[in-house]
Amino acid sequence: MQFAFWAILLAAAMPLLWAVLAKSGPGFDNHQPRRYLAGLQGWRQRAQWAQQNSWEAFAPFAAAVIVAYLMMVTPQQLDAAAAVFIVARLGYGVCYVADWAALRSLCWTVGFGVVVYLFLAAAHLL
């Protein structure tokens, strides 16, 4: 199986990384996790926001990979784009937790650019 399909699984699991960081503080209440998460501050709050954005980024990426595959985008293009997306989204989360806003926005833009690239490649416009 080519890397791009594994990247879908990685992208689906990535929010869990940020969730673990957000919930790693003292006083986490698994009976009311949303209440706990709503009261977070600092880097844990930013980890929660990274988790939320990672879920939002997952669906367009997964759709783009599947559409590009169905439209016979070359495996090399597909795998390279998926790798860039995964690296960009990991960078995004790290930058969010570290509060590096400008670099975080750059990582977001690269990740979204990959989604656009895959759809354009699927349309044979590239």
Automatic annotation (TrEMBL):
Protein name: MAPEG family protein
Entries under InterPro entries matching the protein: MAPEG-like_dom_sf, Membr-assoc_MAPEG
UniProt entry keywords in alphabetical sequence: Membrane, Transmembrane, Transmembrane helix
Transmembrane region(s): 108-125
Signal peptide stretch: none
Compartments, as annotated in UniProt: Membrane
Pfam families: MAPEG (PF01124)
